[in-house]
Amino acid sequence: MEKEAEGNGLGKVNKIDEKHVADNCRKNKKLMFVVIFVTLVTVCAILLIALVCVVVLKNKELAESKVPTCGGHTGVIDISEQSEPSVFSDLTAAEVKGLTEYLYNNKELNLVRPSEVGVDKNYVYLAEIYLPDKDETVTFLDGNINFKDKPKREAKVIIFKGNQSSPEVQEIVVSPLPNPNKHRTLRDGIPLSYCITLHDAIGAEKYLTKMVKEKIQDILRESYEGSISSKCGDHCLTFGILVPVSRSFSGVEKLRFLFGLYQHAGYYLLHPVDFSVLMEVDRSNYTIVKVWYNGQVTESLEALKQGYDKGTIEKQHVPFPKDDDTLYSKMTRRGPAFPESGQRPPFQIEPDGKRYRIKGRQVTYMNWRFDFRMSTLHGPQLYDIRYQNKRIVYELSVQEIAVFYSGHSPIAKYANFFDSIGLIGSSAKGLVPGVDCPAHATFLPSSHFLQKSEKLVTFQNVFCVFEQDTGMPLRRHHSYSKYHGMFYEGMPGHVLILRTIVTIVNYDYIVDFIFYQNGAMETKVVSTGYIITTQFSEKETSYGARVDTYITGNLHHHLFHFKVDLDINGIKNRYDTMDIDTTIVQNNFHSDKNAKITMAKFERSAKLTEKDAAYKFNFDTPKYHIFYNNLTMNSFGNPKAYRVLLKGMSKQILPKDKGNEPSASWFRYQMAVTKHKETERSSSSLYSTLESVVNFQTFIDDNESLMDEDLVAWISLGIQHIPHTEDLPVTHTPGMDLSFFLLPYNYFPEDPSMASRDSVRIEPKMKNNANVGINFIRHSKPRYKRCLPKKNMYQELLQKNPGILFDLK
């Protein structure tokens, strides 16, 4: 019975479990169906969303494919070398071929080829176009002679003549190009020691390096934790700068220059050490004249070694910097990043293409037209600048860029650089689209005939030409009240800019020529790049600021000189100033009958001679500077003139005729006006750093008449720079810009930009009643038309040809 009972109980349990399992199975099936259903719905939803995204993207792509690339009607851009070069064009490849054949076949010149150049040889240093006399050129440009009588093209050639007992420099003019058969001497008898040749610099540095390694390598290693050696690893020392020492500073008629030593980390010029050597060079003979170490002077390396070992020379120790991306001399991005999201910056486009034309090196923009070139020696030059086809300027050119340093250290004390010694024009290269110039700019190369080649050496991206909106209206007025007319009229400040950037070792100079639609021109120069520093010491504090633990940023004065050959309604011009002064007049509306009013007035003052026209700025005597042709007056009896406005003036405080001041005698004046002479083509020269072969003061001292003559304005710009910590790693451009303007002054009957289609006018449809609707008047193509900007292909181009930016040799 018990067994039966047990069996019956087990059966009941089994039946209950089976039922429970069945219920669970039914529930699991339902759950499974729910999961599958939800999964299918989710997948379908995802697929649907993906499909919608694909459709949207495809529609967007289709829509974008229908949006044209910006361009459309565009100006003709032909930057190729012209088969028939203009009067102002640089030397062509064909002309250089004929020039070299003439030079190397001329037994009188006795020249060697570039591969054979040496200190005891005669060789070509450089050659560039030598422009015909202005009278001849203007006669041709103004169509007074036939095309067959186009002025002949000639080349100026500078020859270093080492193959004689007294080496000298000779400047000759070779003609006619492209098949020359004669030459004439322009200038000769200039001692070769007035220049620093490549052989001088390289030979002296090799000799000095050898001597230092042999005699004081241990001192440098102990003092600066580095060495001058091919096996120096990441602790190398280098002679990184050469400072010419002129005869006025050395007192001897020999070539001398200083080498300064630097720790080669980051950008080396921000890691100076207080060691420099004065060298004297006589052909291949090199002499160490003085040695400077830690503020102490010895006569030789041996004397330094002896004093160092004996303890009579005070030692120093400068740790070698850690060369990583945080090093202050490096221009790698560092610090908390901004903007946070990495948004791209705004940029401008040309929706309807370029509104300027370029053929060769002639640019046409709106009512402007001009030619330009790059002088190897002096830098950018513009010619035959016209507005409405009337010449305003015959020549506008950079003459010299100079910088005078101050300091206790010899490197700063004697550093008076005239950059023509380094060839300003051939120092311009490698403009980067999207940074140096807008990506939509037109980039142009320049070519130079230099000692290292018998052919033209071409540098890419030397000039850029672009139109841009300055962000500043050219003009505007808002008359919001019905009592004043109720209208708005304005015009955006669209300008054309011709730009080049010259890099002279450490400093970069941005040079802009800016053309406004109202007939105004601006010439601007902006400094950026690395400052020259010296090792910090208390004795440097009067000459600069401590900008990092071991360095002083030394005070320096940037100087720039420009030639502006104005031709206002012809070449016979006058120069007047409109002098502003005060006058006392009767106050007729005062209760006191004897009351007076003091106010400003102006008087016109004609500058009769060159000495009268040597202008030095004086706050007590404000004035306008006016150039005009006395035979062309407007309907109100005022001369149709152009005004020169100076906005970057600086005063030269160095004493007259002391040191290197005579080479920069042009900086005694903010502006000087002289009579045009073919013998006074330039205010500076290749030799200015070491000797004032061209003394600008002589241009003025002959004191010729300026009345109804062909006048040239020589304009000086400058800025004193006391470096500060924000100059690390490099000097920024804000606050460093200098400029001058050429402004129409009664030249036109009204503002000529009134004819521009760029203007905008807004006015009520009914006069003085804005409630009935607004007329929005534009004169250009509709703004609602869209276009896609052209892709900036610079990065891809640079990958294929890095020589665009970097020297590959």
From TrEMBL:
Pfam family, one: Cu_amine_oxid
Alphabetical list of SUPFAM superfamilies matching this protein: Amine oxidase catalytic domain, Amine oxidase N-terminal region
Residues covered by the Copper amine oxidase N2-terminal domain: 95-181
Details of cofactor binding: Contains 1 topaquinone per subunit.
Cofactor requirements of the protein: Cu cation
Domain Copper amine oxidase catalytic: 349-754
PTM comment text: Topaquinone (TPQ) is generated by copper-dependent autoxidation of a specific tyrosyl residue.
Keyword list, A-Z: Copper, Membrane, Metal-binding, Oxidoreductase, TPQ, Transmembrane, Transmembrane helix
EC number, as in UniProt: 1.4.3.-
Gene Ontology molecular function: copper ion binding; primary methylamine oxidase activity; quinone binding
Active site: D419 (proton acceptor), Y507 (schiff-base intermediate with substrate)
Enzyme category, top tier: oxidoreductase
Disulfide bond among keywords: no
2',4',5'-topaquinone: modified positions: Y507
Family: Belongs to the copper/topaquinone oxidase family.
The protein's name: Amine oxidase
